[in-house]
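Recall the central idea of this unit: under ordinary conditions, the amino acid sequence of a chain determines the structure it adopts. In this exercise we apply that idea directly, starting from the sequence alone.
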Amino acid sequence: MITRRLALTATLATPFLARPALAQAATLNVNSALTADDPLFKGLEAFKQGVETRSNGRLQVRLYPSSQLGSDEDVLEQARAGAGVAVVVDGGRLAPFVREFGILGAPYIANGFPELRKLATSPLFDRWADRLRTASGHQVLSFNWFQGDRHLLTNRAINAPADLNGLRLRTPGAPVWLETIRAMGATPTPLPWTEVYSALQLRAIDAAEAQYPALWGSRLYEVVRFITKTSHINLITGLIGSRIWFDRQPADLRTILREEALKGGDTGSQATLASLEDFETRLKAQGLTITTPDLAPFREATKVVYDKLNYTAVRREVEAVLAA
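Accordingly, the structure predicted from this sequence is:
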């Protein structure tokens, strides 16, 4: 009797003992300085939905707007260490590891989003991304996230580079941004984006430069009077994660991540492009004077940036890609 009971117990227990443990879903935390109402954020929402749907919930994506996970640099360091994080950043943040990325933020490097997307999906760019994996441990998921053209934000009219002389102008701290603003005639002043409003308000800086969605989201229209549409930088950004974390994912999830990042970038970029006219209307309604100067002097003044940062040869490679 005892033997039969033991046998029955073993039989009933076998399915539970043999049943494999349910796999825990992987999680990717995505950080961005964008506010949730920025049109590009629609791309991140599309990325999240696409990844979770196609992976049948095996991979969850959590979105953190307004730099809730910390600064871009902090999140990039977490990614290097292998954390399940990604962040939307410009090429200047990656240039210390692979210098060619810096040219993505160089002045007048391309003519709008179509050309930038062509570059970011080219074999030339793929070689840069492969080198980045080795050099820093970062994984490019896609680099087709267009945030708009960057313009000058001032409290006096700007018609030519000479009008910027003596102005302390906030810009990100990457060398290509600093040299661009210096070449245009202003004194570049690096500051975190979250401090720009108060710095303008307190006159710690005289001016800034940004794209329409960012300046609207940060209410900079309250502390500047003029927007000069120089379009000196076409701001293209990328969704950058961890090579270590990425390589740990199954092959099908790696494919899903890259494909959905490209789709999400296109979705967000098209939303940005569709929003620009409306942003300009709203900014004018706030009392701002918006002008478009002759761009030839600005283009001429910033040519020196390529020589100064040793990007002349890289520029020729980029021009060959865009001309193909």
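The chain is about 45% helix and 20% strand.
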